[in-house]
Amino acid sequence: MKPNVVILTCHDLGRFLGAYGREVETDRIDEFSEDGVIFDNNFATAPQCSPSRGSIMTGKYPHNHGLMGLAHEGYGWELNEGEKTLPQYLKEAGYETHLFGLQHESEDPYSLGYEYVHGPGVGERRVEPTTGEFLNFLDEREGHREDRPLFVSIGFFEPHRPYGLDDYDNEDSENVTPPPFLPDNEGVREDLSGLYGMIYQVDESTGRIIDGLKEHGIYENTLFVFTVDHGIAMPRAKGTCYDPGVGTALIMAGPGGLAVGRRLRELISNVDLAPTILDYVGLEVPDEMDGRSFLPLLRGEEYVERDHLFLEMTWHDKYAPVRAIRTEKYKYIANFTEKPQVYLPADIYYSPAGEEVREEYYGAERPAEELYDLTEDPLETDNLADRPAMGDIKLKLRRKLVNWMRRTDDPLLERDVPPTEEQKRTLEETDFEN
């Protein structure tokens, strides 16, 4: 029988895990990473949920799959009509397809190719009920297993804001360590204390899910994928194309000769995940997918690595269009409208951390172009776009970015992308200026 596939996707986590060098205790995920393959340079196509999750599920960039904004009530973005998703491809190949917890690709989860939707499948679905539903499913399935392989998507709401809720074992603000791209102040520490609490629960529940698969004899024939939609909901992360906004965890383990126990530094885009999974289970990768399989890399075989990847953002709670290209050494960002120096999505804008930086980030406008040397300036603070010595590099990256936009019919190259009707209504009710 073909291997099962389980994808666990967290919300707003980035790489904020012990396995990625953060000073937060995530023992169960760290343990899993030691038995699998951990990707140090996996990036989301977009720094917000629906566009990025759409890329995971379709193998396409957001402006190609249609989710150029958020796909839930009040925003109204949906996948293009007829767009095929990973669960649809696997369902057609004989897989039994299940959704547990959160998804953010459609108001109708059944349209995504799931035969079974456990819980509402959209919006706020937290760790505890989602984990319980999945473990109950394993128990109920024990006595009457079908011969079909499983595809299971598990979506955790956490660690999405709001932080500091009583439901979590929140850390003392004195015990948190702000990442280097954030200032060390009271507001940041207050938010991080709540973020830590949510991450602790994500870690515990991930371990429980893996334990359940093992107890029921399923794990040994399962490709288990732990990943994230985008960066943490903190300033200069979520909602930006800086690395803290698009750098995401990806850890994979399963049968079939995977090179377990390895850390891989090759550039990976989450647009590559769907092609890789299809390749892994022996299905042909559709030509219309933008991504490409990295299965040879996963197995420790010869692999032609990426020398660049593309990033984009169009709509979030505001119109903030950005396109970017990242290589191992450089990042070039093209900003298409006037906006603050650093855009803050609404959940961050009103947060304690957002209040600390709002005056600084909204006191100037962002430049039309940004260029960073990621080797010398990993925090992306020294914009080299206007340096004469960097002109050739900037031109080369700009050409690659524009050629990609042309090749993929990116509407932003020719015009502004208008809001949906739901987005128009939402904007009328929004009072913050960003």
Notes on the structure:
There is one protein chain. With 434 residues, the chain is an alpha/beta fold. It has two domains: 4-298, Alkaline Phosphatase, subunit A (3-Layer(aba) Sandwich), CATH 3.40.720; 309-428, 2-Layer Sandwich (Arylsulfatase, C-terminal domain), CATH 3.30.1120.10. It is 30% helix and 16% strand. The chain contains 13 helices and 14 strands. It has helices at 27-34, 49-58, 62-65, 86-92, 127-141, 186-215, 243-246, 273-280, 295-298, 346-349, 352-361, 391-407, 421-428, and strands spanning 4-10, 37-39, 42-43, 96-101, 116-118, 150-155, 222-228, 250-253, 262-264, 268-269, 309-315, 319-326, 330-335, 369-373. The strands form three sheets. Strands 5-4-6-1-7-8-2-9 form an eight-stranded mixed beta sheet, with helices on both faces. A hairpin with a 3-residue loop joins strand 11 (309-315) and strand 12 (319-326). Helix 1 packs across helix 6. The longest helix is centred in the middle third of the chain and has 30 residues, at 186-215. The model has no long low-confidence stretch (mean pLDDT 94).
Detail the topology: elements first, then pairings.
Layout: E1 4-10, H1 27-34, E2 37-39, E3 42-43, H2 49-58, H3 62-65, H4 86-92, E4 96-101, E5 116-118, H5 127-141, E6 150-155, H6 186-215, E7 222-228, H7 243-246, E8 250-253, E9 262-264, E10 268-269, H8 273-280, H9 295-298, E11 309-315, E12 319-326, E13 330-335, H10 346-349, H11 352-361, E14 369-373, H12 391-407, H13 421-428
Parallel strand pairs: 1-6, 1-7, 2-9, 3-10, 4-5, 4-6
Antiparallel strand pairs: 2-8, 7-8, 11-12, 12-13, 13-14
Helix pairs in contact: 1-6, 5-6, 6-11
